[in-house]
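User: Structure tokens for both sequences below?

Assistant:
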Amino acid sequence: FNTFINDIFDNMPMPGCLAPSGKKDQVHTDPDPLRCHGLLFADDLVALASAPDELIGICVHVTAWCEENEMQVGIHKCGIMEFVGNNKDGFPMTAVFPEEALECDMLLCGQQVPLVETHTYLGIEITTTLSFDEIIAPRVESGRKTVMSLAPFLSCPITPVSYTPLTL
């Protein structure tokens, strides 16, 4: 899949979104942003847009790419999310685009793309607030359950305290 869908962003008609580069130089304290169309991993795709009309253009582009390459979209795994962020005082901002603007004409391969509040990408639950705490909470809980499932073994009095694996 990496090789096959690697060209999906080629000739993308939209400029993409600005994303922090993370690189600081000696002159500038704030890193220069990078222009990013989206993310690709195996057969998963995240497309980024700054406005609803750009999102429509991306949907048209991806649909044309799918038709040309005889691929299908798993619409049940798709969703449109609006990431709003905080204002200059650190308070959450309200949605920039009316909900109707994000829902109209968002079709992939003739299928309506739903507007979602959360989306799972590569096993990580992403929320519209991009809250670090909200994103890691399910992972912490999963780790806690795993450790607790080992508790009977780890607390068993006949389990040797030290363990050295045998090598053959």
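Moving on to the next sequence.
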Amino acid sequence: MKSIVAMSLVVAFACLSFGAAVAAEQSASIQWQTDLEQAVTNARETKKPLLIQLTATWCGYCKKMQRETNEDKEVVQAVNECFVPIMLDADANPEVMKLLKVEGLPTTVVVDTETREASSFRGFRTAKQLRSDLKPFCKK
């Protein structure tokens, strides 16, 4: 009987540990949203600016930025703490491309809580460059 209780505790602890590891892994990446309307609502509710990253499946520098810059620990932390991040496919969102006057990819745009464009960063950004770009908008 004691061994069954001990085994149950081990299994429960393993499940809790796994859940914590999954939560830690999720927070180790940018929590991108994909619904623009919902992201705007979230930005207004949290009083955080939107961070819009426009990409495309065919864009090599977009993939490089996702793989390198967006996985940088300090970039992840700053974006998740200070912004409502949204990643949009440029081909699926031509109206957003036109509205934001995006001329090349990748493009990262900061939009304030009143949905006014605050700043735009065109092209591939290294982690160091992006951290510097975002610093004025991150008050933490």
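User: Anything stand out in the second?

Assistant: Residues 2-26 have pLDDT under 50 and may be disordered.
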